[in-house]
Amino acid sequence: MDQQRDSLIGVLKTIWLWRKAIRNVCGAVLVGSIIVSLFLSNYYKSTTICYPASPKLANPELLFGTSGEVTDYYGTDQDLDRLAEIANGNQLVDYMVSAFKLYEHYGIDSTSKEGPYKVREEFRDLYVAQKNKNDALDISVEDTDPKFAALMCNAAREKTDEIARRLTTNSQGRLLAALEDNITRKKTELTRLGDSLRILQAFYGIYDPTAQGEQLAKSSASAEANAVGLRAKLEILESNPNIPRDTIAYLKANLRAAEQQRSLLTKGIKNNSDDTPNALTVSRFSDGLASVLVLKDLHFQARKQLSYDLERYTQIKAVYNTKISAMHVLEEGEPALRKSRPMRSLIVIGSVIAAFLLMVMAALIADTYKDIRIKD
Questions:
Q1: DSSP 212-265
Q2: Mean pLDDT computed over every residue of the chain
Q3: 3-state class (DSSP) for residue 85
Q4: Conformation bin of residue 67: beta by default, left when phi > 0, alpha when psi is -120 to 50
Q5: CATH number, domain 42-178+327-363, options 3.90.76.10, 3.30.1890.10, 3.40.220.10, 3.40.50.80
Q6: Most trustworthy range by pLDDT among 2-11, 211-220, 309-318
Q7: For position 368, what pLDDT does the model report?
Q8: Cα–Cα distance between 158 and 150 in angstroms, integer?
């Protein structure tokens, strides 16, 4: 008897003996699963596919061609992971709950203590954002309304793009604020240098060091040569008794004039009030040349740096105000033409098979232990 029970014939015999019970249970499960599956709502899935864009596209140097790097339009795996993390974050989920009024849509009490948790979980059960086999980001949303599912799907992608762009623009905003502060300080410094330079130029009378230096050198050399020539001529003629005294007096007067001109060019005439020369002289030019040149160089460098900062600020501001997407959209989410679930035939078939297997196991267990008696 035990051998028969352990063989396949014994199993079939047991199933045959329990055939009516198995038939009844399977029939009941069949009818019940059909009824239950008919009451299940149809869900429609909408999917959008996108690839990450390179963050370097928001780099001012690349955008305005001041860098020698080759522009890469597609992002790396790390950029894709970042987008996937953003797409699955609570910030996006809470936005979807608020934007599409999912409390009312899912029939969840927003005033209850567990309301926020339940609505998040309900949405996450119907929402998937993940990398696919082609290294793209798939964002899918299921809903009983295919059009509503497509709207949520595209909104989730756009919000993901917005959050990703905001991460970059926040950094650019902080950089712009730093540049604005730096530009303000440099403008103040440039104004101070300009005022100091104007005061120094007015004091020494040096406005064009190169041209004025050349002119002073020529004038001084000419005055010196004129004075030396007149002195030599006077020495020669003065010793000659045949030269009229009027001529000698005339030469002396010319010599005094030449020497005075040379003195004016060298030392100048000092004012009585502040004891400073009132015209540009060689001595005054030499005293002020170094200070004027230093201030002119500082003023030039400050203007040059300010121009560079203003240009960089303008470039970053242009990028900041430009909507550069963080992703390349390959496929928009569209209303599904066919439902994604439930598969009612699979539910019914699976339920019947499960009921049959459970009844067979129950029959075998019951047949195996039917002869066992409980002894005291």
A1: HHHHHHHHHHHHHHHHHHHHHHHHHHHT-TTS-HHHHHHHHHHHHHHHHHHHHH
A2: 78
A3: helix
A4: beta
A5: 3.30.1890.10
A6: 309-318
A7: 73
A8: 12
